[in-house]
Recover the amino acids of this structure.
């Protein structure tokens, strides 16, 4: 439905095999105009290097189904998005969740479209009315509603704009508070492992840590729901860091690794200069985990 709405002004839109909405960027196909009709999985253009303009996320529970949809309409910062999504943690993290697929992104409409967001909303509402046989007059009335919660009834159902006023409905209020809670934001994080060296479960080669951190250093921990459940930290085979104060920590509450990393004197054969290396390791972990940015914000 959304693809058909976008095609009112951009015939290059289609749904790909991952159910994302993309724009084909290649040349027009010969004798393929029919592909731009109701077939939302093909266009009348060569795919080229398709640009992703919309993706969705879902969460299914026993009693609820949550759907989060997105669309890049005409962002001025679309060129920055790929860089922002390249996490410095990526080479070191292996998660149990579904891996995201990196895609080049683009805007649905170019800068030649004034009021692009309003145009997108109008096209989606119009296509929704057409798809579900709703009177077009209702669609036109929807476009005139402001951002406050406004619900109207008609023969086949309810239509309107939903906003913060929904929080006055108790069941919806409970769901809104839940999804703003720390437990929802961090406690639902799938189990993941951070490791600076290759393992049987994740044999990828790792980048070396920056100087002056010894190349022999090893950092390996597993976290579930943001809580560290096991940890191994060492600067070298003979300089072990104390993992007892690391296990059980919640990553989202940690503002610097400096508070946690210290040499385990009972298990280490060498000490001395290693204290400065401990600080260097903590600084590096702060940087790639974004703690410097967070603390300075």
């Amino acid at each position: 439905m959304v693809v058909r709405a976008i095609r009112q002004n951009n015939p290059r839109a289609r749904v790909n095999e991952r159910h994302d909405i993309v724009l084909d960027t290649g040349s027009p196909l010969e004798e393929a105009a029919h592909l731009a009709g109701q077939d939302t999985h093909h266009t009348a253009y060569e795919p080229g290097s398709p640009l992703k303009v919309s993706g969705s996320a879902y969460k299914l529970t026993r009693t609820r189904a949550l759907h989060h949809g997105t669309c890049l309409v005409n962002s001025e910062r679309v060129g920055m998005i790929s860089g922002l999504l390249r996490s410095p943690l990526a080479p070191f993290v292996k998660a149990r969740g579904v891996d995201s697929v990196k895609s080049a992104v683009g805007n649905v409409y170019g800068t030649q479209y004034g009021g692009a967001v309003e145009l997108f909303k109008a096209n989606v509402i119009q296509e929704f009315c057409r798809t579900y046989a709703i009177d077009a007059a209702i669609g036109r009335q929807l476009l005139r509603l402001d951002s406050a919660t406004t619900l109207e009834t008609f023969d086949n159902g309810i239509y309107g704009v939903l906003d913060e006023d929904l929080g006055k409905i108790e069941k919806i209020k409970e769901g809104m508070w839940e999804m703003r809670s720390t437990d929802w934001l961090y406690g639902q994080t799938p189990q993941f492992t951070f490791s600076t060296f290759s393992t049987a479960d994740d044999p990828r080669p790792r980048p070396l840590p920056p100087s002056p951190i010894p190349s022999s250093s090893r950092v390996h921990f597993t976290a579930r729901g943001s809580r560290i459940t096991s940890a191994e930290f060492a600067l070298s085979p003979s300089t072990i860091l104390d993992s007892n104060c690391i296990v059980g920590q919640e990553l989202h509450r940690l503002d610097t690794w400096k508070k946690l990393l210290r040499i385990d004197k009972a298990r280490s054969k060498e000490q001395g200069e290693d204290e400065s290396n401990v600080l260097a390791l903590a600084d590096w972990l702060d940087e790639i985990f974004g703690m410097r940015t967070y603390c300075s914000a």
